[in-house]
Amino acid sequence: MKNFSLMRISIWVYLALFFSYLLGPLVIMSVTAFNSPGFPRAAPWECLTFEWFSALFQDERILNGIKNSILVGVGTVTLSVSMGLAGALMLTQIWPKLRATYYTIIIAPILIPGVVIGISTLVFWDRVNRMFGLDADSFLSNGLFLTIIGQSTFIASYCMLVLVARLQRYDTGLTEAALDLGATHAQAFRKVLLPFMRPAIASAAVLAFLASFENYNTTTFTFGEYPTLTIELAQKVRYGITPAISALAFIIVLLTVFAALFNEAHIRRKELVAAARKSATVEELGSGNFRLPGFLSSNTAAVVLVVVAMMTIAVVGSATVYSPQQCIADVKEQKRMETEVRIQELRQRRADEAARRAAEQADQAEQEPAVEAAPKPSNNSGFGGVFAPGALQDDGADASEEEPEKPGNDSGFGSVFDPNALQSE
Amino acid sequence: MPQFLKEYFNRNGIGLGSVMLGLVLFWTVGLIIMPQLSMLDFSFRPNLPPPEIGGPKDLYTLENYKYLIFGPEGGSQDYNAVDLRVFYRTLIAAVLVTIFNLMLCYPIAYYLAQTKGNHIRVLALMLIIPYWINEILRAFALRIIFGETGILNNVLVGMGVFDTPFDFIRNDIALYAGLGYAYILLMIFPIYNVIESLDRNQIEAARDMGASWPRIHWRVVIPYAKPGISSGCTMVFMLSAGALAAPQILGGPSSLWFTQLIYQQFNDNSDWPQGAAYAVVLLVTCILLVLALMRLFKVNMGDIGK
Amino acid sequence: MSAGVGVNLEDLWIKFGDFVAVREANVNINGGDFFSFLGPSGCGKTTILRAVSGFLEPSQGNVLIGGNNMKGIGPNKRPTALIFQNLALFPLMKVWENITFSMEIKGASAKERRKRADELLDMIALTGQGDKLPAELSGGQKQRVAIARALCAEPDVLLLDEPLSALDLKLRQHMRSELREIQKRVGITFIYITHDQGEALTMSDNIAVMRAGVIDQIGDGKTIYNDPMTPFAASFVGENNVFRGRVKQVSGNEVMVTTNRSGDLMARVANGTEGRLKEGDEAMLFIRPEAFSLAPVGTQGDHFVTAQVTKEEFEGNTFNIFMEGDGGKEIKVALPNLGQSFESHQGEAMTLEYQVRNAVALPAGVLATE
Fold first, then answer.
1. ipTM
2. I want to staple A87 with a disulfide (CB 3.0 to 4.6 A). Which of A129, A159, A160, B233 is the partner?
3. Domain A59-241 belongs to what topology?
4. Is residue A189 within 8 angstroms of chain B, CB to CB?
């Protein structure tokens, strides 16, 4: 008995650790989107700000990347879902001796590194392009075409796997029945097979879009003049990170959570409707007015969905009226003071060692506090700033420039511990 | 028209059958087979400016492969020590990431597959959500955490574990954590799928006979889950070895991933044949490694992707 | 209703690679007939049906429907409708949409379709159930919906591929008479595939008995039951006792067979097989369980069989007695229960008598394996 509960506890601890590894980074990243420092960080907390979101929406390259990503996504979804469906259908009726080989070929792109797929796509279509004697800017070497082609190569395999799982439960007798009743092959496909496959096609399409949207390894070789959002993000992240990226990440996380909850709610609702249909009598079914369950009744996911939606609306609403101006000014003031203290100390030290100090060493020392100013106030930054009321909507202040402006003041730490005192200054 | 084609068109109709056949051929031949062959061919060619391609100088050569092993001709060293080190370091690191992921994910997969209840659905959802977030953003999130002033260093220094912030990035810890993080779902899912179909009675029977938990796993669950485990390991290994985003974002400045070399050949040096040769080496090595392991653990190709 | 379209199979061969599924089938099915193909599973009867419906191209020979050669005509262009073994109701369509699918294909309006569906639902006694999904129906109801769906296409020939095999015994017996009734009402040709001889006998105007791709015999139920032309037909249709032996003497339509265990027995030659048995030929003699009656133990003669009783059963309408038979298989005797008292004879010898007209002698051949 004791053993059992010990095991239970260790399972829960393990789960907790695992999920904090999984979700923690996303939560922390999301939090950094609302913190005012120019370098994304969750602690020390400085000021609640929404400016990174407006910075994000003003970034031409990000917006263009989103546009390209959607273009590529639509193309990839169309191509890879149709290829995946054709591939899956072929798998069910291919000559048995060829089956294993065929399966290996269509599953291989999942295992081929994305980099290799990108390179081979680029090299092959470049050659095709030259073979046709086309210019370097023909559609065959166009970034949009190449990216869609390259991504579809392996995304179609994912789609195929999703579709084949459903197809295995399809009774080919249904198609034969439709043909027998006079349908053409196309009609049988459209009216019988396709409706049956619809849920799997929807999953495959969502999967394909997400895979396309987040693909980097392949796209980085093929994008040409169509950099997708992921490419833009990677370039930004490689050459300096800002909380605007966190803001984007937060939006994506939120959208994902929404989508997931919506999907859950939808599934649960379908179950409930099916249950209601089952218990309904013939007359009720005929007249169509049997009692359907309410959208929220016994549907936890739907409830959570509504709650999250309302919270989002509340946050967005408050974001339009909230301004971190005051808080940022306070933090600035606080940092300025702190820097001054350090400068004072430095001056003291410098005075002591003045004789031995060379001129360039002094320069270096003077820069130090400016660089380290950001991380230092971790132990005494006031959380009060979060609650600071602000009336101004103008948020032009750039938090990344937090250089002390007016050195010379030698006030102590006393007021730093008291945010209210700071505000009243 | 051969018999099987005739039957095929009888079964699917001329129009629909042609569309299907066309799509499958385009995919398998045009997108999978031809590009790979084309890349292989390209890797044996010298790097020439476009006008000279197909000209008299365009002869097959082993130059690009020699370069990986011996370095530039007339170079000071006997071997291309830098690139070779990157190569084997990449493979070893990918193996380590795979093992780490397997150990991390097996208990979770087992728990999810063999436990009933509503919370399993919630956990599964929480498992899938991070996978929907962009790969770059996931790496970015880890960079925030592992940065010199990141939250992890704040905590560790605050607790007194370290005196000064530890450089997770330079020590490649961030990279390994990031790679492991990126492919958790790909490890859990295949294992979960297999274990879910394991009859609980088998476990109960083993327990009934007095087997300890480690023994039950070793003798009953793991042998049963072997296809899933190898499927997950194959995917994680291949994807880690072929990863590009995570090493670019989370890798230390001095340590390169092999894919980064390929990337450099293509984008910085504009030496496509050289890049293609490196890509071929990566692909072939990975495939051989995976095939060898599959042979070792007696798993079939057909089990992959289930 | 376009009644009376006949179906002809002319020298039909169907091969899958080296395997011959159907060999030289020649069948004439009259318009408006209820025609059954009866045979064990794997005998090629479903293959014939698929050739008639157009899912299979014959390797050789022709399928004629209403006198028209169907070569090269796809299943969607043939005047046939097939009821699948598993019914193949479209799971995502409501019952009424299922029934009127053939009209939807032709572009009929929803209103028209609804009206026709209601008529057909009335016919199959499922009034008002059109808005259900197939999964919400019981087995027998699905069955009837499948029939309605096929009839809605107004076919000249309805093909049924063991449609009752998934139902339980009671329902199966009920559906037999219902099917027969529907066939009489709509008056079109039904081609029915079954391995259940009871179904074939009760419903059919004519039956073709099939074995391993070959049609052994075609005839109405009575003929096949009373005058089987092959040992297979004799042993597959209904229960039968077989006595192996050699022909001792032929006299007109009667033959004397020296059986392996039961001495010389007399039998008649089945209609249509006259002249096929010669003196000295290996022969099989068939006597049905119900053709026996009890005789005083030890009676000798050419229509008496004496053997040891091994087992007895009481089945309600009959007493079944099993006796040591020839070739390991027991002789079964079914005595009608007419209220007589019956005492056990297990382990004892017993003598049976039969009428010579109820025993059929055939050249030795393959028996149906049970």
1. 0.85
2. A160
3. MetI-like fold (1.10.3720)
4. yes
